[in-house]
What we know:
The chain has a 4-stranded mixed β-sheet, with helices on one face. It is globular, with a radius of gyration of 13 Å. It starts with a strand and ends in a 9-residue tail after the last helix. The chain has one domain (3-90). A hairpin with a 2-residue loop joins strand 5 (70-73) and strand 6. The protein is of the alpha/beta class and 99 residues long. Helix 1 (7-17) runs parallel beside helix 2 (36-48). The protein has helices spanning 7-17, 36-48, 82-90; strands spanning 3-5, 23-27, 31-33, 57-61, 70-73, 76-79.
Amino acid sequence: MPEVISAESVEAVRTHLAQPMTRLLIDTNRHAFESLACIRAFREVLEGARLAERGVKVAFVVPREHRAPEVVSAQEGYFDDVTTARTWLMRSFDPREPA
């Protein structure tokens, strides 16, 4: 059974994202959100963290039925498995260069 993301979990993510970082892997493939409100709150937390502006490279692992794997930019990619996401994430990058 997947781990449930609750409102408290989303607040913990907010605290974590406030810390300095250069890379972030977010794996929602093995999690279930407690409610639609939690999904919205999670998205608001991610947008509010201004990761791109801070130069953080982010890899999202999401079920293929929700989003096809795609590298959006040098700093943002979507994958359907952790290994591929981690490999992409760990490659060095210059945010001024194309993906």
